[in-house]
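Input (structure):
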């Protein structure tokens, strides 16, 4: 496959995650009211999706090592389109949660295979650069998703916002069916045997390079997820933003992330992976700490959240490609399993974060602010210590 086609496929597959989580965020308060649901139930439409997304990767990963990436991608994308259509027409919150769970499991096939494809085709050093290009495409998708979701919600309803997900899924399915060639260099016929599987999982989880980069992935995404899960309620209900204004706000956040992926490629060429993450850790720590200090000083303004969050998002555009590529780097013959475990740990943390937010949202911005500050400190510590010690490719 041409290099440009590979980047496009990776961007579309990785883009499944922000499309599925971000596009419906402007609709979340409205669908909560229409379906007569509580805030914890509304949070469950996101956290259940992410938990299914994480757990499913533990199944998709070994399956893709055994049978190849292409059949797993085709099965996952068909299931994603069906679940998207069903969720758009769900008559109750319970059914919506059910279909969002199926959607998350199907999404796991796409995102997991994307990370594994990078290791199939590239060395770890090359992989970080290619991953940053793919995540630039993801950034474009993330930029467009909230404004489109806000516009569809304002002009039509939350049903239209969720229906848009099926369109994106159908585009991914068509691209895979028509243009994607198998990338697994050698399928592992023993990948699903319990003994082989246990040996593979144990080898991955005991690898210090995998652990260092996976912890960075976990904490960086958990900080982002804190904002995703709480910001629509804080900005719309606390600060009075309209759904369209909130969509524009999310566009600028995604644009900042996109800029971070370009910054990542520039820093990688100049400094290498580990020094690049030192600088990104400083950005994360500075943004999260500034947000927390302003809150302690009783500065109550949406800009006291949004402006400090910008360096966090910029750094996330650096942390994400480096950490995801670094986590699968040591495992050229078990990239699916390593990608799956990395994704599972990330989504398990996101699920726990969502559950905490669901029980601690108190009508103020405090849970969002102090949650982001907490993750910012952890991200910086990991980037400055564990990655420096164990992050050599």
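Output (sequence):
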């Amino acid at each position: 496959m041409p290099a440009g086609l590979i980047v496009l496929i990776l961007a579309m597959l990785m883009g499944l995650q922000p499309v599925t989580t971000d596009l419906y965020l402007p609709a979340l308060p409205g669908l909560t009211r229409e379906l007569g649901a509580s805030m914890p139930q509304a949070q469950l439409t996101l956290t259940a999706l992410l938990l299914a997304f994480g757990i499913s990767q533990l199944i998709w990963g070994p399956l893709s090592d055994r049978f190849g990436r292409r059949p797993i991608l085709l099965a996952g994308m068909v299931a994603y389109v069906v679940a998207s259509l069903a969720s758009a027409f769900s008559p109750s919150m319970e059914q919506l949660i059910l279909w969002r769970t199926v959607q998350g499991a199907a999404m796991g096939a796409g995102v997991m295979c994307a990370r594994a494809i990078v290791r199939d085709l590239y060395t770890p050093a090359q992989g970080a650069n290619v991953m940053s290009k793919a995540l630039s495409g993801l950034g474009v998708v993330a930029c467009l998703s909230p404004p489109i979701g806000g516009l569809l919600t304002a002009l039509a309803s939350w049903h239209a916002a969720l229906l848009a997900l099926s369109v994106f899924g159908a585009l991914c399915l068509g691209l895979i069916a028509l243009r994607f060639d198998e990338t697994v260099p050698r399928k592992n016929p023993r990948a699903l045997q319990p003994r082989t599987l246990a040996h593979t999982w144990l080898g991955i989880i005991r690898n210090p390079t995998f652990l260092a980069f996976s912890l960075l992935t976990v904490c960086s995404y958990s900080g982002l997820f804190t904002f995703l899960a709480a910001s629509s309620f804080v900005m719309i209900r606390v600060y009075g933003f309209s759904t369209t204004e909130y969509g524009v706000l999310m566009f600028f956040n995604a644009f900042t992330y996109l800029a971070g992926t370009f910054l990542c490629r520039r820093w990688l060429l100049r400094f290498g992976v580990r020094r690049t993450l030192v600088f990104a850790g400083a950005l994360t720590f500075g943004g999260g700490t500034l947000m927390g200090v302003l809150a302690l000083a009783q500065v109550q303004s949406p800009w006291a959240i949004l402006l400090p969050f910008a360096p966090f998002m910029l750094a996330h555009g650096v942390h994400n490609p480096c950490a995801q590529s670094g986590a699968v780097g040591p495992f050229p013959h078990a990239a699916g399993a390593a990608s799956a475990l990395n994704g599972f740990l990330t989504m398990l943390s996101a699920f726990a974060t969502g559950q905490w937010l669901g029980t601690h949202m108190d009508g103020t911005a405090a849970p969002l602010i102090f949650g982001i500050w907490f993750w910012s400190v952890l991200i910086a510590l990991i980037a400055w210590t564990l990655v420096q010690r164990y992050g050599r490719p």
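Notes: Residues 3-182+195-390 form a domain with the Growth Hormone; Chain: A; fold (CATH 1.20.1250.20). The longest helix spans residues 243-296.
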